[in-house]
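Narrative of activities, Objective 1.

The group set out to show that a structural description can be obtained from nothing but a protein's sequence at a throughput compatible with the screening campaign. Below is one input-output pair from the validation batch, recorded exactly as produced.
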Amino acid sequence: MKGEKVADVTTKASGSSTMSDFFRHGSVEERREVYRIAATAAICEQKAVINSASSGEIKTTRK
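Output recorded for this entry:
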């Protein structure tokens, strides 16, 4: 009804995500660890692509 408050409405001014809240309020050590994990994952993925390409699993065409 009019004037009733809904229980699940958030009072945040911005609709920031949990991840942005983490980077806004997390400690430097926590942020460094997250960056390190992301960088390690990216490097591993790049190595896998390079290994696949060099072993012939991925066909590359040059023009």
